Amino acid sequence: MNALTRNRINTKIGQWQNDLDEGNYYQTWYPIHLARELKQGQLVGKEFLGTRIILYRDASGKPVVQSAYCPHVGADLACGELIDGAVRCAYHHWRFGADGRCTDIPSGDKIPAGARIYNYPAAEKWGLIWAFHGETPTFAVPEIPEVDEADFIGIAGERGERPIDHWLSTSNAFDFQHLRALHGLPAQAEPKEIEITAHSLEYGRGGNGPFRHHGKVTGTNTFAHCVNSPAGEHFMLVSSAALAPGKSLSFYVVGVRKSATDKMTPRALHDHLAQLEANAMKLYTEDEPVLFSIRFRGPAEGNWVGADRHLASYFRYLREFPQARPFDT
Ligand code: FES
Ligand SMILES: [Fe+2]
Q1: Ligand closest to the CA atom of residue 80
Q2: Cα(176) to centroid of ligand 2, in Å?
Q3: CA-CA distance, 60 to 43, in Å (whole number)?
Q4: Contacting residues for 110 by C-beta, under 8 A, at least 6 apart
Q5: Alpha carbon nearest to ligand 1 atom 4, residue
Q6: What's 291's DSSP letter?
Q7: Tens-of-pLDDT digits for all 329 residues of the chain?
Q8: Is 78 in the pocket of ligand 1 (CB under 6 A)?
């Protein structure tokens, strides 16, 4: 894309595009649905990556995520039904298996070689259904630092659609000035160093002291942390799916180490988790008026200072992150 085209898009969208070429999306794991809201036998249609997808559970309960448009003449398969584990298109009743292949054409015609729908790599973790943008995942589904899913108990929720790109939400986690200024969090939250790999940014690993904050971004869109303070240990994960340019769908997970709740009554655990969820909602509520109205100025356009160095690291990382055009767009 030349500078003129990019500038035109910037003006149109009114946001800094961060080198994401038109029609492309980052190749990361996106949370797309609350796991508890995808029941066996249910067929759900959703907007995702500038197109549409369907999702359901296969016979073993594993999530299946596929492109929504029927390869026959293009009906949205979400209008169809799940029958004997196959998706039946509403329009002419062609059926597709969990591997995406067409298995039946009622007219008796030979099944065309191209009659298959695209399967997104899919997973279920932390109470969320995830889909990877790409043929094969290049890294694992995001972890929450210092806790295994088997030893985690918490709440997963959907914050809803946001009129911003997901990278803006994620950048918020590296904007340490705002943690103090906007959220009033303690200065100890700021790390000295950030470890950067091709698919993650991480800080606060292996630290000690009365207040520990171990945070990690996985891919471009998932921030998770473990916080240890005199008040106890807790975990949070926030992540968003890219729906279209300038539009995302946000999810959160909050919780504690299950093995540390042995002595808690169910009521006390419920109240504790509800408080963690309320704290997360407070952060969203404080951020949203700013993030939803910002005209983001990146490191090249804004007046960034030394205190923005971690934010700058995130944007350098983002610039290198693989991106691709989604299937059927
Ligand atoms: S459009 Fe789906 S079967 Fe014809
Ligand atoms: Fe924030």
Answers
A1: 1
A2: 9
A3: 15
A4: none
A5: 92
A6: H
A7: 334 344 334 433 334 455 678 889 999 999 999 999 999 999 999 999 999 999 999 999 999 999 999 999 999 999 999 999 999 999 999 999 999 999 999 999 999 999 999 999 999 999 999 999 999 999 999 999 999 999 999 999 999 999 999 999 999 999 989 988 999 887 666 788 899 999 999 998 876 677 788 999 999 999 999 999 888 899 999 999 999 999 999 999 999 999 999 999 999 999 999 999 999 999 999 999 999 999 998 888 889 999 999 999 999 999 899 999 998 88
A8: no
Q: For residue 209, what are the CA distances in angstroms to 201, 213, 228, 256? A: 22, 10, 9, 19
Domains defined for the chain, CATH in brackets? 27-132 (2.102.10.10), 149-323 (3.90.380.10)
User: CA-CA distance, 251 to 224, in Å (whole number)?
Assistant: 12
Contacts of 26 (CB under 8 A, 6+ apart): 20, 133, 167, 219, 220, 221, 242, 318, 321, 322, 323
* Category of 92 on φ-ψ map: left (φ > 0), alpha (ψ -120 to 50) or beta: alpha
Using CA atoms, how far residue 194 sits from 229, 275, 316, in Å, is: 21, 29, 13
Does the beta carbon of 72 lie inside 6 Å of ligand 1?
yes
CA gap 13, 3 in Å, rounded: 15
